[in-house]
Amino acid sequence: MREFAAPLLSREPLAHLASPAGFYALAGRLVPWFALAALLLTMAGLAIALVSAPAGSLGDAYRIVFVHVPAAWMSLLLYLVMAACAALTVLLNARLPGLMMTALAPTGAIFTFVALYSGFIGGWSTWGTWWVWDARLTCELILLLLFIAVMALRSRLEDPLGGERAGGVLVLVGVLNIPIVYFSLRWWNTLHQGVASSLTGSPGMGQAMLWGMLLMALGFGLYSMAVILARVRCLMLERHGHQAGEAAA
Amino acid sequence: MNWNELFALAAREVWSSFAMCFALMAAEVWKLRRRMHRRQSAAALDHPAQENARAEADKTGRVPARANDAR
Lengths: 249, 71
Description:
The complex is a heterodimer. Chain A is an all-alpha fold. Chain A is 81% helix and 0% strand. Chain A is built from 11 helices and no strands. The longest helix of chain A has 35 residues, at 206-240. The two termini of chain A are 13 Å apart. Chain B has helices spanning 3-12, 15-46, 51-60. Mean pLDDT of chain B is 71; it is low at 66-71. Chain A binds chain B through residues 46, 49-50, 60-61, 63-64, 66-68, 71, 106-107, 110, 113-114, 117-118, 120-122, 124-125, 130, 223, 227, 230-231, 233-234, 237-238, 241-242, 244-246, and chain B through 3-4, 7-8, 10-11, 14-18, 20-21, 24-25, 28-29, 32, 35-36, 39-40, 42-44, 46-47, 68.
């Protein structure tokens, strides 16, 4: 009770929002707005992806990029945010970033899986095979395994704070994988096509593709924020029971 | 049906990627909502002012669905 109630007495608004109780209340207010914005932006992105964007030389198969590319962007972005939270958890022993890190992992795993799955389907259409041990594909698979490892560490260790610190160390080591994923197309010859070629491959398609992918990425980003904030609230309740809700009320 | 046939089928049906993506997202939201509801109910029962609800839960062996509303 005291650990949640004390920050509420502070007159500094930022200190209040950074406290678990202030964050619990703020997150509860933000989640519906993020969810609504995510729904609208994703619907707009889908309309462009499935209706407005003209068919390319690959036929309708190229429309997979409207899911594949934003999901891959989100997987990298979520991992970077998770790494920042991990650094704060490991170095400063902060509680809230530890919860954020735990909450980020399942959503990151979902987007990484979607990027890989849509890559399998796109690879079958364009390369004739669903998997090759290509640098980018392999690094993305390692990214998925890292997300799963963080989730497993958190759930297997009985002490949640110990689990978060152990997961944080793993995330910080795994951050080396991110530049490899991003620069793999420049560093190695791979089957995976570059971003520039997919945006300008067919005349007149670039703008529609770009807007479609940006809207989908924004929608996925807002969805991630909504889900992650909701999961942090859940973790707070699990850890502190009624004290979280009571102090935030 | 082997893996190759399965992927050939999925590649013919482009919407399967979209469906997979949104099905996973919806499943995540559904699971999270259930988890949150369960935790809120348990947290409400944990509250000292919820002796009646807690006694009811002990007697019936189940958590009241809207226990948190009693507050």
